[in-house]
C-alpha cells in the first residue's frame, strides 16, 4: 500500500468514526431515544473499531487484513442499523459506514 | 510503584471500566432511557479513560501522573452522575468509580 | 457467556497485555535491542489487541467472535516470535500469549 | 468549537499520530536502534494519546480540556526527544508534535 492509498484508507476510517460518534451523540438527544438503542450501541462499537484500525494503518500493522475484515463486518452492521432510521445523522452515518466498508474491502490483500 | 501496587491500581481501573460498561449496557435497556442520557455518555467516557490508563500502568508510562489526574476527574464526574439514579447498576457503578478515583489519587506522585 | 467465564476471558487478555507491555519495555532495555526488533513490534500490537478485546468483553460486544479470532492470530504470532528468545520476559510473554490464545479459542462461539 | 475548528484539531492530532507511528517504525529499522530507545517509547505513547484525543474530539467529550492538556505535555516531550536526532523521521515527528501541541493549546478553553 502506498502513501496515497494509506491516506485514502485512513480518511475513510476517520470519516466513519466521526459520523458514528456524531450519530451516537445525536441519537441520545432524540425524543425517541428508546427506539435508537441498537443504533447507539453499534455507533459506539463502530467508532472504536474504526479508530483502532486507523491507528493500525498508520503503523503499517502486519495484521491489517484481520483488522480490515472485522471493520467491514462492523461497518456493514452499523450501516444496516442506521439505514433503518430517517434522522439525518443516521442516514449520514449509514452512508459513511457503507463507504468505509467499501474502501476497507478494496484494501484487503 | 511496586508490582503489588501496580496490580491494585490496574484492578481498580479494570473494575471501574467493567462497571461503567455494564451500566452503559443496562441504562440502554431501561424504560426511562431518556432520563439516563447523561449516565450513558459518561459511562462510555469513563470506561475509555480507565481502559487507556490500565494499559498505561502496565507499560510503566512516564506520564502516569497526567493520566491518573484525568482519571480522577472523569471517575468523580461519573460517580456523581450515576449516584443520582436508584438503579442497582448505577449505584454499583458509582461505588466502583469512587473507589477507582480514591486508588488513582493515592498513586499520583 | 456467564460472569465467571467473562472474568476468565478478561483475566487472560489482561495478563497477556501486561506480559506484552513488560516484554516491550524489557526488550528496549536489552543490549541486543536490534535483535529484538520484531519482538518489540509484535509486543505492542498484541498489547493493543488484547486491551481492545478486554474492553469489548466487558461491554458484551456482539462482535466478540470477530475480535477473539483476531486476538488468536495476533497472540499466536507474538508467542512464536517471543518464544525464539531466551530472555525471561520473552519466555513469560510467549507463555501468556499461548494461554490467552487458548482461552480466546475456547470462547469463540 | 465549530466544525472547522474541530476538523483543524482532529487533523493536527491525526498527523501527529501518523508521524509518531512512522518514527516508531523507522527508529526500529535504524542500525543505531539502541540510541533510539527513548524515541521509540515516546513515539508509541504520543501516538496513543493523540489517537485517544482524536476520538474524544469527534464525540464532543466534556473532558476535552483535560485530554488536551495531557496531549500538550506528551507532544512536547516527544518533540524534545525526537528533536535531538538527525534522522528525517525524527525531525518530521518533532515538527508534527510541536504543531499538534500548539493547536491543542489554542483549543484549551
Unreliable stretches of chain A (pLDDT < 50, length at least 5) are none
CATH architecture of chain A, by name, is Up-down Bundle
Q: Name the biggest interface.
A: A-D, 16 and 16 residues
Straight-line N-to-C gap of chain A: 10 Å
What's the oligomerization state? homotetramer
Strand content of chain A: under 5%
Descriptive notes:
The structure is a homotetramer. Chain A has helices at about 5-30, 35-60, 65-80, 90-105. The first copy, chain A, has about 110 residues and is mainly alpha-helical. The N and C termini of chain A lie close together (about 10 Å). The mean pLDDT of chain A is about 95. The interface of C and D includes residues 34, 41 and 44 of C. Chains A, B, C, D: It comes from Alkalicoccus luteus. Chains A, B, C, D: InterPro entries: Csp_YhjQ, YHJQ-like.
Layout of strands and helices, then pairs:
The structure is a homotetramer of 109-residue chains.
Chain A: H1 3-29, H2 37-58, H3 64-82, H4 88-107
Helix pairs in contact in A: 1-2, 1-4, 2-3, 3-4
Q: Can you describe this structure in just a few lines?
A:
Chain A has helices at 3-29, 37-58, 64-82, 88-107. Chain A has 109 residues and is mainly alpha-helical.
